[in-house]
Design goal:
The protein is mainly alpha-helical. It has two domains: about 30 residues, no CATH class; about 90 residues, no CATH class. Helices cover about 60% and strands about 5% of the residues. Helix 2 runs antiparallel to helix 3 and helix 3 runs antiparallel to helix 4.
Length: about 130
């Protein structure tokens, strides 16, 4: 039989020193609210892509549910959902929140930088053709 998993506090798990008391360690996907919040954000962004594609092209394209690229960014939504959940659950003074925020900012910046580079490349091709 499968084992039952849940999110335990550090005090319950005895895995870390007492100064980390109150922090959460996720031992399952279905029991961890931060994980659920992150993937709900990801799913919402993927669903929104179908509607934004329809708004632009007036054609329904259900492959946008599983496709990458485009706006809104599902990668950014995933990391920002995790950051928000971490901030709510752990507080904004938590080192977990700081790590999550830095990770989110890096993902958001690189997404914007890649989109800008792609647009400038296309503009360059158009100008020089």
């Amino acid at each position: 039989m499968g084992a039952s998993f849940k999110c335990l506090s550090v005090k319950e798990s005895n895995l870390m020193p007492n100064e980390m008391e109150g922090s959460l360690i996720c031992f399952s996907i279905h029991g961890c609210r931060a994980f659920i919040a992150a993937f709900l954000s990801f799913f919402a962004a993927q669903v929104a892509k179908v509607f934004t594609h329809y708004y632009i092209t007036r054609e329904w394209d259900m492959t946008r549910l599983v496709g990458s690229g485009g706006m809104p960014s599902s990668h950014t939504a995933l990391v920002m959902g995790l950051t928000m959940a971490t901030g709510v659950m752990q507080g904004t003074n938590s080192p977990f929140f700081a790590i999550s925020l830095v990770f989110s900012l890096i993902v958001s910046y690189s997404k914007g930088y890649c989109a800008l580079s792609l647009s400038l490349g296309r503009l360059n091709d158009t100008v020089h053709s």
